[in-house]
Design brief:
Elements (H helix, E strand, L loop, with lengths): L1 H9 L6 H5 L5 H33 L5 H27 L17 H10 L1 H35 L1 H4 L8 E2 L5 E11 L2 E11 L2 E2 L3 H37 L1 H15 L1
Antiparallel strand pairs: 1-4, 2-3
Helix pairs in contact: 3-4, 3-6, 3-8, 4-6, 4-8, 6-8, 8-9
């Protein structure tokens, strides 16, 4: 596991002020966004494949049809993992080496089926497909919470004066807070006290809309950098489960116990 952690630490991106500021104009950013956006529908599809495949396999195991269905599920896992590996490399830029699929070493169908059943890479791939839905839900939530509000703020000048549209900051009631700072001096307390009051604010002029849009640009830059980080984490999760490093680690552990 130390090898996996060392590789993970070495691949951690080290953002600079320039890379943070230029996130909106880097092509990789939009590859990351596409990857995050695809994670949710792909996660649903993978979850359905895994759940339906396992359910039918267990339910029909007594008729031996379930065994064939389970082998088919494992073979499907290999194909879907290959798609995920290439998709992660193309969109996120995280290169994932192909596992050493053991079933490919089989000379006949029996050896190939045995390779599918005993290959840790296939089982890790199945785990990855099962967890893709959770990753997709998290990615979808981040896109809705971070990206959508920022884009709406940037576009404020385009719709602030449309009929039926109200843009601004709206509070149920005004918020007032007294802030004080006192410093003891001899036998006296010297300090300042002032009241901060927050009230509702509505965009009614083009100048207000432009100010809101400028705030949106800042929010967009922050959101894109956070989403880039989320996509990188998703890529590392894919590398961990469907890459060859952890598989070889599992193979080594099993070999020690079996030997």
């Amino acid at each position: 596991m130390s090898e996996v952690l060392a590789r993970l630490r070495s691949s951690v991106p080290r953002p600079s002020l320039r890379s943070v500021a230029t996130a909106p104009v880097r092509p990789r950013t939009y590859g990351n966004l596409a990857y995050l956006a695809l994670s949710f529908p792909l996660g649903i599809a993978y979850f359905v494949v895994v759940v339906v495949g396992l359910s039918l396999s267990v339910g029909l195991a007594i008729l031996l049809v379930g065994v064939a269905l389970f082998v088919g599920l494992l073979a499907t896992t290999v194909g879907l993992v290959t798609v995920e590996r290439r998709l992660t490399g193309a969109l996120v830029g995280v290169d994932i080496e192909a596992p050493d699929w053991k079933f490919r070493d089989g000379d006949d169908l029996r050896e190939q089926v045995t390779g599918l059943l005993l290959d840790p890479a296939v089982w890790l791939g199945l785990v990855y497909l099962a967890t893709k839905l959770a990753v997709g839900i998290a990615a979808f939530t981040l896109l809705m919470v971070l990206l959508v509000p920022a884009v709406v703020l940037v576009a404020t000048p385009l719709f602030y004066d449309q009929p039926g549209v109200t843009v601004g900051l709206f509070l149920p009631t005004d918020v007032s807070r007294e802030l004080s700072l006192y410093v003891p001096w001899n036998e006296l307390l010297v300090g300042v006290s002032f009241v901060v009051r927050l009230t509702s604010w509505q965009v009614t002029t083009l100048a207000d809309a432009v100010a809101m849009s400028a705030l949106g640009v800042v929010a967009l830059v922050v959101a894109l950098n956070l989403l880039n980080g989320a996509a990188w984490l998703c890529g590392q999760w894919a590398r961990l489960l469907v890459g060859g490093t952890l598989t070889r680690r599992v193979d080594g552990t099993l070999a020690r116990y079996v030997g």
